[in-house]
Amino acid sequence: MIAARPTHRIQDPNAPEPVAATRPRRLRGEGYAQLLQRRRHNPVINHTRRAAGAVAPRAAASKRVNVRRVKAGMLHPDLQEAIAFHRAIVAESSKALVGYDTAKTLANVVLLSEIPTTYDKQADRQVNAGNLLLRGVPGVGKTFFGVILAAISDAKFARLQGRADLQPTEVVGFQMINPATGELVTEFGPLASAEVILLDEINRIPLKSQSAFLEGLQDRTVTIGKTTYELPAFSFAIATMNPAELGQGTFPLSEAATDRFAIMVTIGYLPKEEERKLVNFDFKRVRLKSLMSKERIIQLRASIGEQVFLHERLGEYIQRLVAATRPYNPDTEWYEHSPSKLVERGVDLGASPRAIICWARLAKVWAVLMRERAEVYPQDIQDLAPYVLSHRVWLGPHAASHGLTTDLVIKDVIKRVPIP
Fold first, then answer.
1. Which of 398, 403, 365 lies closest to 383, judged by CA?
2. Which residues have CB under 8 Å from 157's CB, separation 6+?
3. Contact assessment for residue 207 and residue 255, using Cβ atoms and an 8 Å cutoff
4. Residue pair 312/326 in contact by the 8 Å Cβ criterion
């Protein structure tokens, strides 16, 4: 009787087992710049089991030690201080505000970001922190969140309540003749005098008065009469809006106004475990303390911008992501088609170049505070995408009928644009 033939081929047990060729992956202790350099010299590697005389990947990579170590203990002292400051803010604000850890983190990212705003002969006035837009239904703590952020710094705080009859002079200020002396006197509004300003229910402010914010939120100046005045060196704006009320007494926020906010955070309802904590929460015992001077915060912003590395290829990645949010539209002089069909089908207006400026700076702060490293990775950029783009991507009137939302469009853009 003839034995059946074996169904598999007998291999030499000492021979290495071939594996499908893949692109090199990041090794432990290796930064993104080193990974790109390794891919450039050897774009495809045939990984095999370790054979006689072969060099282990980790051993080969041990000579390429990344100077921007992941461990916080090896970071620059200023970056370590920024991480400690972030943790202290989250812990201190949790005394008065239950939950919303993501919103607290994003607020710190904006507060510690150094974003170019305007040209000024004074170098310390050419940059400023980004502005924060909080969006949520009534009663979730948006206003209280803004008050807490101001309380943990020693900055001068002012709150401006949005209402339908608010005038531009109540925002920036006005000039009047002093009847006693006959001199022209300038009275500054909250936007011109405060260092941290809370624009509460900004979508209740009419469009004429909304335009009064545009100069201050971008150029950090206000014009009263024929004179232009500079805002304080430390300037941080927090705005809240309610998307549920769109009827009488509310006004849509213009594209120019929303684009001046670095990120938008949507605050929803708390999980039931955290909502239960509100039942017996004693607000009378809450005592918040100032954690850091505003001068030191300005110094940390500059240090993060200098110490954190953003590879040129990742800068191009941010630009391609922003460009992918724009549909082909000759009216806006944009003649490129987006790789996302959802953008071409349902988006009227994509993100502006200001989004690129904000995104790159915010990614540096995010890498420090959340990942405790001094180098930006692609994941950092993708993590910030919903917050940087959600208020800058404007859907067309027929998007809802096709089931399109801003979140779906952003996810599709991230999926279609390849990582370098």
1. 365
2. 147, 150, 151, 194, 195, 196, 197, 198
3. no
4. no
The pair of structure tokens assigned to 210 is 């909304």
Q: What is the dihedral of CA 75, 81, 84, 89, to 10 degrees?
A: -140
Establish if 9 belongs to a structural domain.
no
Question: What is the total count of domains within the chain?
Answer: 2
Backbone angles phi, psi at 195, to 5 degrees: -95, -35
Is 3 domain-assigned?
no
Joined together, the tokens standing for residue 111 give 């507060």
* Same-domain check for residues 366 and 343: yes
Angle between helices 294-307 and 77-93 (to 10 degrees): 130
101-119: pLDDT as tens digits:
888 899 999 999 988 777 6
- Whether residues 161 and 293 share a domain: the answer is yes
Which residues form the domain of 360? 308-420
| Cα distance from N-terminal residue to C-terminal residue, the chain | 61
Query: pTM higher than 0.85, yes or no?
Result: no
Point out the least confidently predicted range of 26-30, 109-113, 365-369, 377-381.
26-30
